[in-house]
Design a protein that fits this description.
The protein is α/β, with parallel strands linked by helices. 34% of the residues lie in helices and 23% in strands. The two termini are 28 Å apart.
Length: 238
């Protein structure tokens, strides 16, 4: 990888998003990089705030409403656009979701770590709560605390780097357009192609689970309503 392309998909939740963006922009990164925020049909107010922030902090803002009429979520389109650009630039693709806050050295260390690992497809930073305890969706990684290890389960895209070699090996145009989220599919595809996926419990990032999709909290609070939305409304297809 000669460079790094960082992306954050955004759907409202502007206060959390601002924290995410500021942490990325203030990171200590030595590798050449670009940072793009994909605004997925947020409100007018959120869109205006993102525009102001992009001018102040100098990141690229793409409003998907200018590109497609497809309703949110447009994660597939974001992945496909970002993959094409990353491959053309010999760059890795780092997805940092809008409910995640990285430390100053997270991005560079994740990039360096991915470079040094055998057949690395995905290098994922473990997620923690405000107290520093490993939390959802990486609860299964607790037994590997303090290590970097090869994971056979899927890596969530909270803060995950996809290497250039893997991006060249699997074209995201082949992904199932009927789904909303693709971390499971892409993780399993990497393994089937002979790559390895690694979780860095040594690089914790602060994660506010479902900060950008608050309806998902219903899974614990009101599971009947959650599954009604998931099945009847077609939400959250993975």
């Amino acid at each position: 990888m000669k460079a790094l392309h960082i992306l954050t998909p955004v759907k409202d939740s502007i206060e959390l998003t601002i924290e995410t963006i500021q942490a990325i922009v203030c990171s200590e990164i030595s590798v050449p990089f670009t940072y793009t925020v994909y605004n997925d049909f947020s409100t007018v107010e959120t869109t205006e705030k993102l525009q102001e922030l992009s001018e102040k902090l100098h990141f690229r803002l793409i409003n998907l409403a200018d590109i497609t009429n497809h309703p949110s979520p447009n994660y597939l389109l974001v992945l496909q656009m970002a993959q094409e650009e990353a491959v053309a630039a010999d760059a890795g693709l780092l997805i940092i979701e809008s409910d995640v806050v990285v430390k100053k050295d997270t991005i560079q260390k994740l990039f360096d770590g991915a470079q040094n690992l055998e057949q690395c497809a995905i290098a994922a930073a473990v997620t923690v709560n405000e107290q520093g305890e490993i939390n959802y969706p990486y609860l299964y990684a607790k037994k590997h605390a303090g290590s970097v290890y090869s994971e056979k389960k899927h890596c969530s895209f909270c803060c995950s780097l996809l290497t250039t070699e893997f991006l060249r090996a699997f074209n995201f145009q082949q992904l199932d357009a009927s789904k909303n989220w693709f971390d499971v599919t892409i993780s399993h595809k990497a393994l089937s192609l002979g790559f390895q996926n690694y979780v860095f419990t040594t690089l914790p990032v602060w994660h506010r689970p479902h900060g950008s999709r608050p309806w998902k909290h219903l899974k614990r609070k009101n599971p009947i309503k959650y599954y009604w939305l998931k099945i009847v409304k077609g939400f959250d297809k993975i």
